[in-house]
Amino acid sequence: MMPPQNGQPQGQPQPQPDPMQVLFQQAQHIQMQAQQQVQQLEQTTTIDQVVKFLRDERTRSFAIEIETDSTIMPDEAAEKQSRNEFLGAFSQASAGVQQLLQLGPSGAELAGGLLKFALAPYRVGRQLDGLIEQFTQQAPQIVRQQMQSQQQGQDPALAQAQQQLAQAEQQKAQAQMQKVQADAQLAAAKLQLDQQKASAEAQQRQQSLQMEADRMQTEYQQAQADLAETLARIEHVRAETQTLIANAQTARQTADNDSVRAISEVGQVQFEQDQALMQPVVINDQTA
């Protein structure tokens, strides 16, 4: 028989690592990877730095080699801010699911679902989806192993009480989750209703503006027609006036000619009468 090594008696089981410690280490590993990505972005040369360098007069004589990737570099500032927001959300979500991990496999499964739900909107965290999915899948099994190891050697009544307490806490967490989902659905419904109301108001306002524009167009066309009719009447009256003036001038000219003719005729008659009076009278003396 071989002697026990490292002073460990034969037959004694090896101590198992604490499952909670394993989960915590996995969460720390995910957070460290995200922080490393942020640090890599901070060390990357930004577009603003390149532009500042190109505008520096002291570097005019330098030969600059531009890499292909630098021409398609994304906005690092926005990327850093997004990653920092992701880290903050991850820290809050990790702290929030710690109590759920103590409620058994179902609580661990719910904790994994909540963690994925909290981090899903962050596009920058999709590179860690594999690790998060692995953590979500392993968490229930690790918690199950922890509960089995804790139940060995415990009082059955105490174990049953702890299980009932865990179930109660799990139901409470599920109720809170349902409330969060209900609130989110209510907020989404309210937002959709507000959008529909705003769209209806905008459509009604557009229709009112269109009706007003049509009314103004109709009034403008009517005004144009009235103006054209008025101008036609004015032109007709002016033509009639010119005709009357011409007729009056013609009548006056005719009257003047008639007056001159009458005066001339009267003068001729008077002249003839005067001539007749001026001729000598011849008296014939006849003796019977």
Folded structure, characterized:
The chain has helices spanning 19-42, 47-55, 76-96, 105-119, 129-151, 156-278. It is built from 6 helices and no strands. The N and C termini lie far apart (225 Å). By secondary structure, it is mostly helical. The protein has a domain at 18-57 and 73-152. The radius of gyration is 57 Å and the shape is rod-shaped. Residues 1-11 have a biased composition (Low complexity).
Structure, briefly:
The protein is mainly alpha-helical. It is built from six helices and no strands.
What brief labels describe this structure?
288 residues; mainly alpha; 0% strand; rod-shaped; disordered N terminus
What is the overall shape? rod-shaped
First-last Cα distance: 225 Å
Poorly predicted spans = 1-13, 61-65
In total, how many beta strands? 0
As a percent range, the share of helical residues equals: over 70%
- Average the pLDDT over all residues and give the rounded result: 72
Task: Work out the strand percent.
Answer: under 5%
Report the biggest beta sheet as strand number plus sense, adding barrel if it closes: none
Category by helix and strand content = mainly alpha
Number of helices: 6
Instruction: Report the C-alpha radius of gyration, rounded.
Output: 57 Å
Order of helices and strands: HHHHHH
